[in-house]
Amino acid sequence: VKNLNKIIDVNYYPVEEARRSNFRHRPVAVGVQGLADAFLALRLPFDSPEAKHLNSQIFETIYHGALTASVELAQIHGTYETYEGSPVSKGELQYDMWGVTPTDLWDWDSLKVQIKQHGVRNSLLVAPMPTASTSQILGFNECFEPYTSNIYSRRVLAGEFQVVNPWLLKDLVDMGLWSDNMKNRIIADGGSIQNIPNIPADIKALYKTVWEISQRTIVQMAADRGAFIDQSQSLNIHMKDPTMGKITSMHFAGWKLGLKTGMYYLRTMAASAPIQFTVDQEALLVADTNVARERTSNRKPLAKAYIAPSTQPGAPRPMYMKQNSNSNPNPNQTLTSPNGVPTPSITPPPTEARKPVNPPTKSPGFKADAEEGGSPKTLATEPGTMQDEELKDSSLSSSEEKPESGERENDIYADAVLACSIENPESCLMCSG
Hints:
Elements: H1 2-10, H2 16-25, H3 35-41, H4 49-77, H5 94-98, H6 108-118, H7 132-138, E1 151-156, E2 159-164, H8 166-174, H9 180-188, H10 201-206, H11 215-226, E3 237-239, H12 244-256, E4 266-268, H13 281-284, E5 335-336, E6 342-343, H14 388-392, H15 394-397, H16 415-423, H17 429-432
Parallel strand pairs: 3-4
Antiparallel strand pairs: 1-2, 5-6
């Protein structure tokens, strides 16, 4: 908050109206990114009751911290110009206008006393915004949204790379399920793991994509944190096959819950999927016989009844942890490289796919001076195949000149004309001019 407040003073404004408005109201916007990663670190499915409770507590904490910092700035620099008459000056905070009672996580009464005494420096403080680019740079998921896919392509200057959800990758490696075959199955299912039979049910519940979570749950979670967002939030709606009725119903649901932004973007799924050239379709027909083994990590187990973080807090652990080589009875288990990134084991191909493949032989090119027919249908499209005897005597026959017909002497692409221009340019009509 203090850094953003400083930017207001030193920022460049293209027009005077923007500078005057910023100096009068001094709004700032504090947002989040990686909310889905926080849930995965605590082993909480996105739509679980504990995740919904933690969602409210996170934004209640952000709002309380932002107001505290703004009060400290007001003690030094005074309130913003249009502070008098605002709801905050009357002791009404955002959750008061929503009719929501905050939890006892923070002492809001003492904060209101400080606000009444010193005021606040900024008119607006919290506004979760889209963070697509910065989230990819830092390795988190965008804003407060669930994961759109568990595997996606990232295009940078160095090329295009396939990126797997790091939390899912770590779990699959720990269970001995990660392989090239598993990667191809996730790609074939559009980044979903719900239809892969050998993945446990608790992992499937943990790694639901946004297309597999009820959008009513997404809207309800937005309303839960909306009581602690004094500006607004960029809420996107994801629908596989949107209709006018579904969109209207979603709009009215958000409006009744008090959302200021009912729908920032409407994300839809493509009607037809592109051809997946990188997926081995024959390998998908082979049943994956890998069985998930018991995880030996320190992560909090995902029980049938979710454990509230207040009773048994689960601390997030590093994304990649080194594995003990002595406790690896499976020789096909994925190894961990020195930089900590798991390397998937290669699933052996079927028996019939192990036949040696002969290297392709280079086909002889066809002559450019082949006579063209009267229509494109008579053009030579494939070069003639050479017999073994012709390949053996190719060096001998190359030195022998075949007699050219009289019709080809006038062809500017014929070998005789080209030889004439090289060996005897004075007698060549083209060269002598």
